[in-house]
Amino acid sequence: MLNFFLILSFLFVQSLAEAQDTVPLKSKGNSGVQKLDVAPALQPEPYVASLGVFGSNRINETILRQVLGKDLEEWLKKGLKGDDSALELELKLADKVKNQFDLAYADWTVMQFFEPSDLAIHITLDVVEKSDIQKRMSFKSAPTGQFKDPGGLLSAWRDYEELGLSLVESGQLVPDAAKCPAVHCPFGHSHKKLKPFEKKFSEGVKKHEKALVEILNQSAQMDDRASAAYLLAYLNDANKVAMILVPAIKDSEPLVRNNVLRVLGDIAERNKDVILPTKPLLEALDFPRASDRSKAIFVVMMMSSGSQQVREEILNSSVPSLLAMLKGNQPDQRDFSHNVLRKISGKEFPATDYLAWNNWFNKMAKDRAITSGKPSNSN
C-alpha cells in the first residue's frame, strides 16, 4: 500500500492543512507522514516524477508538452517553488487544452505521495471527451437546501480535521485507522488533543443522524456535505453507513465523492460481511478526477478479494477501465488495478507489461464472444 498522499492545486510546498484532499484512505502502522530527523540541507525536496493525461486517446504527454510549450515548464517551476501565480497559470493551461481539443472537462490533479525520503509528485491532466459525458459525468444536480449545524458537529469536525492535519504535518501523529470508534476516522482519537472529539462525534452523530443524512443529500454547502459523509461513519454500523453513503458516490462535487469513497473503502476492507453494490463503484472507476478513481479502485480491489461474483462483474464490464489506470501515471491506481487484474484473470503479467494485459483482454473478449455466439468487434 502506498503511503499517505495529498491532492492539491499546484502549490507543492503549501501547508498540508490547506489542502482539501489530504486524509489517507488507509493508514496502518508507520505508513504515514514522517518527520525526518536530518539536517535541513538534507531534507528531500518535492520533484515532478511523472506527467500524464487520462481520459482521451487523442492526447498524451508528448502532445501535451507540444501544445503547452514553455508555459507548462513555467507552471511546473512555479509550482515547485510555491509561487502563488502558479494557480492562475494552472487554470489557463487546463482551459487551453480544453478549448483546443473541444473537451467537456479538463483539470489538473497533482498528487504527492509522502515517503520519508522521496517527495515524488505525479501530475495528471484529467479530461473528459464530450462523447463520454453520460458515461463519466452523470452526477446528481447540485442540491440547494439550507441547514443549521446539528449539535455543532460540522464545525467540530472541521476543527478535528484541521488539528489532525497539523499534528500529522508536524510529525506528532501517524494516523492509525485500526484504533477507530467508527467505521472510518482519518486521524483516530489516541492523541490527547483529538480525544475530546471522540465522545462528541460518537454520541452526537447518533442523536443527529437524520439531520446529517439530510445535509449529505440536500445541503447546498459542499463542505457540509463532505463533513457529513465522514461524521456519519460514527454511527459505527457498517451496513447502515454503506446504505446511507452509496447514493452520494454521484455527488456533483469531487470532495464529497472523495470522502464517501474513503469511508466505503474502510468498510470494504474491514467488514467482509457487508455487501456493497457493485455497479456504482465500477462506474466510479471512470469518473473524471484522479481522486475519484484512486478511491474507487481501492474499494473495488477490496470487494474483488472475497467475491467471485464481483470478479465476474468486473470481467464483464470494467477491464477497459482497469487497463486505462494500469497505463496511467498515478502509482496507486496502477498498483491497485494490477492487483484486481491478477485476481480476475489468474494471470501474473507484471504491472509494467501493458501489452500483455491488453492482449489477454482482447483474447478473452474474443473467446467470450465466440462462446456466447456473438460476433466480436475487431479491427
Keywords:
disordered C terminus
User: Averaged pLDDT, please?
Assistant: 87
**Derived structural class:** alpha+beta
Strand content: 5-15%
* Largest β-sheet summary: 4 strands, mixed
**How many structurally independent domains?**
3
Shape: globular
How many alpha or pi helices? 15
Task: Report the span from N to C terminus.
Answer: 38 Å
Task: Explain what this protein looks like in three dimensions.
With 379 residues, the protein is an alpha+beta fold. It folds into three domains: 5-136, no CATH class; 139-249, no CATH class; 274-379, Leucine-rich Repeat Variant, CATH 1.25.10.10. Helices cover 50% and strands 8% of the residues. The chain has 15 helices and four strands. It has helices at residues 61-81, 85-100, 133-136, 153-169, 195-207, 209-218, 222-231, 238-245, 254-270, 278-283, 290-304, 308-317, 319-327, 331-345, 354-372, and strands at residues 5-8, 47-54, 105-113, 120-128. It has a four-stranded mixed beta sheet, with helices on one face. β3 and β4 (120-128) form a beta hairpin. α4 (153-169) runs antiparallel to α5 (195-207) and α13 runs antiparallel to α15. The radius of gyration is 21 Å and the shape is globular. The model is unreliable at 1-38 and 374-379 (pLDDT under 50).
